[in-house]
Each structure stands twice: as C-alpha cells, then as structure tokens.
Design brief:
Helices cover 39% and strands 21% of the residues. With 326 residues, it is of the alpha/beta class. A nine-stranded mixed sheet has the order 3-2-1-4-5-6-10-15-14, sandwiched between helices.
C-alpha cells in the first residue's frame, strides 16, 4: 500500500519514527518519506544513519499549522507520532503538552484535510484511557480530535492506534534498567506492584501497518500487548546482566499502578478484530462503521488492564530476547 506513495511522519526522528522509516524502506518502495520534526541535530544524525535519497527532512513544529500544511503538500499517508511523552515532564509543563499534543493534532488533522491526504494514522497511548496525568488527558483529547475529523470530509480517513510501552523507545525503562545494572545498581523501581504493557518496536510498527491498511476511518485499533510487573522485568534482566540491589523509590506524579488499554466504559464498543488487535468504535459511530464491525466477535472481558493476564518469567525473557535486551 505504500509503494510509490508519499509518507509524512511527524516526530520522525524519534525511535518510533526511525523504526517506521526502516520498515517502510525494507518492505515497500515509497516515492518519498518526509521526516518532519523540530530537532536539527536529530535530523542530521538520522540523515547520516540512513543515507537514503527517498527521505526528505523538514524542520518544523506541529504547533505551527502553516509549517505542517506546507510540508504536507502531495502526501498520501500521515503518521502522527510527535508528542511530549514523559509523564513526569508533562506534569510539570501541562501548557506545553496542550500546545504539542492537542493543538498539534488539530493542526495535523486540519492540514491533512486541506491538502487531501488519503489516511492519517495517529499513534496514541494506554495513558489516554481513564487518564490521571497531563500526558494521558492530552492524548485522550487527541484521540477524540482524530476520530471526529472523519465527520468533516469524505476523502481523508482518520484512525487511531493505541498501545502501551514499546521496548527500546526513547526514555524506555528497559535500557534504563540495563544501564543501572551495568553501573552496579541499584535498579530504581517506583512501586513493586506496578505493571505495564510491553511490545518490541518492530512489532508495534508491524501492527501500525495492519491498521493503516485495514482501517475504515473513525475507529481505534488497540494492540493486544502482553504485560508484566516492573519488578518481574527487573528480575529477568538481572538473570542476564547480573545481580544488583532493587530499590523502591515511590510513585512519581501522574503515574498509575496499572495501565488500561480498554476501559469498562469502552468494552461494549469493542470487537475482537484478529489475534493482534481489538477495535473500539466511538459511541456515535456512523451506520457504515457499525455494519462493518458488527460481523466480528464482541470483546468479552470487563476491561483490558496491564494486570489482567501477566506474562510468566519465560515469556518476559522471550520478549526481552526478541527486543535484543538480553
């Protein structure tokens, strides 16, 4: 679907953007990949890393509508990845979070409609479900902005992809724990009871491709991500890298003990799409969307949380091995 297409990636120099670019070049023959981001140094480093004539680097900020629209001319697909994503940083800077995540998403949606993009794929987060922090609240609003954008035109389709923690993404806890072990410890855990969803970066991008291809527009694809406790994660990493002290330091502002990918309120709107995805419809889904997904089995759980079906140690080890962390 991406052969001979122009693809626009906001936040393209981040870990998601670089893996997305890698897999687009591996599996498809795009006409052009436009990497749109505000960091000059990050773009220079990425250009040296890829050395591909198919990648065009554009300095710009999603906060600037005209910069987004100008760079989006002639584009077929938009992957919206740009965000301020560290929960504690977002708690200290809520106004900046709104400018980037909320206003930035409005700008991307408006620009895509204006220039006639085929599809916009917005990458969301488990923290957007029952949000308690600035990041999650902004992501929840961004989801609603993207889904509602389908009502404003008949040409551009908008879809959300919602997932949890991706192993190896910038600021990820796993390389942080590995560094702490290699430096002699301790491993600092905020709360020993905490659980999180995890997936490798390559797996996450593959699932995004599925959503990009299959979406009707107006739905949210929810990744079926495995989960484990943070303590369990630290212990499995120690088996590979060495034993150190584990120190509990207390939950940081805005953190939850357990994350949620599908809430009790969304359960009745959710379908089992395939082995990798659930699909959640908006409460005001149009008749066409409802008709398409009514043929799929209904989601039959009360909710989908990170402490619902935890992995055992062997499964955690296998996932870490797949992500090349052990």
């Amino acid at each position: 679907m991406f052969d001979n297409k122009k693809i626009f990636i906001t936040g393209g120099t981040g870990s998601w953007g670089q893996m997305l670019t890698t897999m687009l070049l591996e599996s498809y023959d795009p006409e052009q990949i436009i990497c749109f981001s505000r960091g000059e140094l990050a773009q220079v480093l990425m250009r040296r890393k890829f050395e591909s004539k198919k990648i065009k680097f554009v300095i710009g900020d999603v906060r600037d509508y005209h910069a987004v629209k100008d760079a989006m001319q002639g584009v077929d697909y938009v992957f919206h990845l740009a965000a301020i994503k560290h929960v504690d940083v977002c708690e200290q800077n809520p106004q900046e979070v709104v400018k980037t995540i909320v206003n930035g998403t409005i700008n991307v949606a408006r620009a895509a409609q204006s220039v006639g993009v085929d599809k916009v794929i917005n990458v969301s987060s488990d923290k957007a479900v029952e949000p308690i922090n600035a990041y999650g609240m902004a992501k929840a609003l961004a989801e609603k902005i993207i889904i509602q954008s389908n009502q404003y035109n008949d040409t551009t389709r908008f879809v959300c992809v919602r997932g949890g923690n991706v192993m190896g993404s910038s600021g990820s806890v796993i390389p942080f724990f590995v560094d702490q072990i290699k430096n002699g410890g301790p491993i600092t855990i905020t709360d020993s009871r905490m659980t999180r969803f995890f997936l490798t970066l390559r797996q996450a991008i593959s699932l995004m491709f599925t959503a990009s291809n299959d979406c009707v527009g107006g739905e949210t694809f929810v990744m079926k991500m495995p989960a484990c406790s943070i303590t369990q994660l630290a212990e499995v990493l120690q088996q590979a890298h060495g034993r150190v002290e584990i120190k509990e330091v207390g939950i940081r502002p805005g953190e939850k003990l357990h994350e949620v990918l599908i809430s009790k309120n969304d359960a009745h709107l959710t379908y089992r799409y395939n082995r990798d995805y659930y699909v959640t419809l908006p409460i005001n889904a149009h008749e066409k969307l409802q008709k398409i997904y009514n043929v799929y089995p209904k989601f039959d759980l009360l909710e989908f949380t990170s402490n619902s079906l935890p992995m055992d140690d062997q499964q955690v080890e296998a996932l870490l091995s797949k992500g090349k962390f052990i």
